[in-house]
Amino acid sequence: MKKTAWNLLLTLPISVVLLVLAANTKTLASERGGENETTDKETLSPLNINIPASDNVSQIISQQEPVQGLSSSADESQVTSVSQLSDVQPTDWAFQALQSLVERYGCIVGYPDSKYKGNHSLSRYEFAAGLNACLDQVNKLIASSTSDLALKTDLQTIQRLTEEFNTELTQLRGRLDSLEARTAEIEANQFSTTTKLSGQVQFVLGGVLAGNNVITKKPAPRTITFQDQARLVLNTSFTGKDQLRLTLSGGNIESLGGRGTGIFGTFDGRTADNRSPRFQPNQIVLGGIRYRFPIGKKTQFNIFAQSDGANEIGLSGPTNPFEGSASNGISRFSRRNMVYNYGDTGPGIAILHNLNDQFQLGLSYSAPNGDNPLPNNGLFTGRYVAFGQITYFSPKKNFRLGLSYANTYSAPGATGQSGTNFGPAAGSNLANSTVAGAGTVGNLYGIGALYKLNPKLAINSFVGYSAHRYLGHGDGQVWNWGVGLTSPDLGKKGSLGAIFVGMAPTLTSLSKNVDLGAGKGQADKDISLHVEGWYQYKLTDNIEVTPGFIWVTAPDSDASNPSSLVGWLRTTFRF
Fold first, then answer.
1. Long-range contacts of 31-38 (CB under 8 A, 24+ apart)
2. Considering only CA atoms, which of 49, 68, 70, 45 is closest in space to residue 60?
3. Across-strand partners of 286?
4. SS3 track for 462-514
5. What is the Cβ-side half-sphere exposure of residue 430, based on CA atoms within 13 angstroms?
6. Which residues, given as ranges, of the chain have pLDDT below 70?
7. DSSP per-residue codes, 298-354
8. Which of 32, 141, 375, 539 shows its CA 20 to 30 Å from the CA of 451?
9. For position 234, what pLDDT does the model report?
10. Which phi and psi angles does 100 have, rounded to 5°?
11. Comparing C-alpha atoms, which of 550, 539, 548 is closest to residue 572?
12. Could you tell me which residues come within 8 angstroms of residue 71 by beta carbon, excluding any fewer than 6 positions away?
C-alpha cells in the first residue's frame, strides 16, 4: 500500500479521538448496556413554535416546534472551514483537531446558527455515526492517494476503535440499509416530490338540550343531529424552507346561533367548525390559500389570498390551548379572545419576527372583502383589520403572555363569509350590531396568558376590550373575558380534559343617541356566563373522541332568557 494512503488511514483516527475529547462526551460505557443512553438534545427556543392552526392542545401546552420556514437548531449543515463555527476559537485546546477534521477531511458538520456546540454530550451510537462518516472519508482519500506520512501507532488506533465499536457500526449500517429501502419505497409511491397531503374528517352528534330562541322567546328545537366536516390540506415546499398551503374543506355542521338567526337567535352558545352561511351544505370550498417563506433566520413572511392574518401566524395559539380546529374547544368563544375575531377570510399579509429568545412580534393586515371589486370593497377601501401582537415566553417555557391591538373598519352594508357586517361573531346581538347606513370603526385591545402549573395542568386566561365608533352617530364599548383549565394526558397519554368559564362579548355602554335595535342608548342589560367542558379521548394516534357541553346563563345578556345547554360528541379522524 502506498505511504500516502497509509497516512490517511492512520492520521484520521487520531483526529477523531481529539474530536470526541473536544466534544466533552459522556464516558463511553464499558458494557453494551450503555447503548441505551439518551442524548441530551438542545432545547429549542420558546419562540420556535409551529403555532398556526394547531390541532393538538397538548402541543400548545407542552411541546414547542419550529416555526414553519424558519431554521431549526436541530438541523445540521456541512461546513468547509473552521472559521465558520462561531463558538470555536483559535485559543481552544482542540482547535487544531477540529480544523483538521473540517478543512482536511470534511468529517464533521455544524448547525445552521454557525455553532459547533462542542460541550454537548453524545451517546455511543452518535460517536459510532461520526466514526463511520470519517471511515467513509478515509476510503475516499485512500482512493485519491494524497497525504503525508504517518506513524504505525495511528493504524493501531483505528484498528482498536473499529473493534471497540464494531457492534455499533454493524447496527448503524443495518439501519442505513433499512432506511434506504424505506426511502426507495416512499419515493416510488409518494403523492408528490414537493407536496404533502394531510386531512381530517369530523363526525358530530349533538344538539340543543335546553334553552329558548331569544328573538321569538319560544323553546329552541330539541333536535339531535349527526353532521360532518372534512378538510384536505396540501402543503408544498419549493426550497425546503418555504410553504405553499391550499385547503379544501366542506361540511354540513349548522351554526346554532347568529345575530338574530339560528336556533338560539344569538351568537351565544355558537359552536365552532360550522360551515360558512355563504356556501351550501357539503359544498367543497377552496380556502386557506397562503404562501409562507423566511426572511433571514428570525422573520417569517406570509402572503395569503384566503385566510386571516392572526390565524396565519397563530397569534392566539401560545396563550390559548382551546385554539385549533376539530379537536380543541367546542365553541368559537372559548377558542379565541374577541380581539382576533373581528376579521374574516380574505386576502392579506402577515409577518412573524423573533425579537430575541423571549419576545416575538406579529403584524398582519387583512381585507375580508379584498377580492371584491365593487364600491366600498377591495384591499384599501372596504373592510380591513390591522393587527399587532407582542408575545413573551418565559425562559423556563412555563409562562406566556400576549398583548394585542387591532384597528378595524367596516364600510356600510359590507358583509363577510360569516354573514356579519361588523363584530366579534360571538356574544350578544348588540355587541355584533351596527347602525344602518353608517361605517363602523373598532379599536380593540387584548391580553392573554398561559401558565403551566405542572406537566399535567395548565391555566389560561384572556380579557378583551373594544371601542366601537358608529361613524356620525356615537360610541359603544364591548368587553369579554375567559379562564380555562386544561389537563394533558388525563386518563391516558395523549388525551386531555378542559373546562372554560367566561363572559362572551357584551355591549356594556352605548351613546345616548345610538340605536342598535334595542332603543337609543340601550346597551346589554345583564351579564351572561359561558361555561364549557370537554374531554378529548385519544383512541389511537389518528382517532379522537370528544364529548362536551356548552352552558350559557342569561343568553343574549338578558336574564329573562332561560339558560341554554348544548350537548356535543365529536369524533375526529386524521390522516
1. 32/167, 34/124, 35/123, 35/124, 35/125, 35/168, 37/123, 37/124, 38/123
2. 49
3. 248
4. EEEEEEEEECCCEEEEEEEEEEEEEEECCCCCCCEEEEEEEEEEEEEEECCCC
5. 28
6. 1-79, 104-105, 108-112, 141-152, 154-155, 189-190, 325-327, 415-421
7. TEEEEEEEEE-HHHHTTTTGGG-TT-SSSSS-SBHHHH--GGGTS--SEEEEEEEEE
8. 539
9. 94
10. -65, -45
11. 539
12. 112, 113, 241, 294, 297
Q: Cell 380543541 belongs to which residue?
A: 328
Per the CB < 8 A criterion, the answer to whether 511 and 474 are in contact is yes
Give CATH superfamily name and number for 195-574.
Porin (2.40.160.10)
Contact 39, 183 (CB under 8 A): no
Q: Using alpha carbons, select from 423, 468, 464 the residue that is nearest to residue 447.
A: 464
CA nearest to 353, candidates 310, 432, 299 = 299
Domain residue ranges in the chain: 3-40+76-189, 195-574
Grid cell locating 395: 425562559
**In whole angstroms, what is the distance from residue 448 CA to residue 459 CA?**
11
pLDDT of residue 560: 95
Q: Which of 359, 490, 532, 453 is nearest to 58 (CA)?
A: 490
* Cell of residue 164, nine digits: 471497540
List, in order, residues 6 or more apart from 278 with CB less than 8 Å away: 417, 419
Q: Which residues of 58-76 are buried (b: 16+ CB within 10 A; e: fewer)?
A: bbbbbebebbbbbbebeee
Question: CB neighbours of 94 closer than 8 A, spacing ≥ 6?
Answer: 18, 19, 21, 22, 118
Task: Dig out the grid coordinates for 152 from the structure.
Answer: 504505525
- From its phi and psi, is residue 5 left (phi > 0), alpha (psi between -120 and 50) or beta? alpha
Residue pointed to by grid coordinates 341554554: 564
Amino acid, single-letter form, for residue 309: G
Cell numbers that stand for 328 in this block: 380543541
3-state secondary structure of 396: coil
Give the tens place of pLDDT for each residue, 98-119. 777 777 667 766 666 777 777 7
Query: Cell match 346581538: residue?
Result: 429
Instruction: Give the amino acid at 271.
Output: T
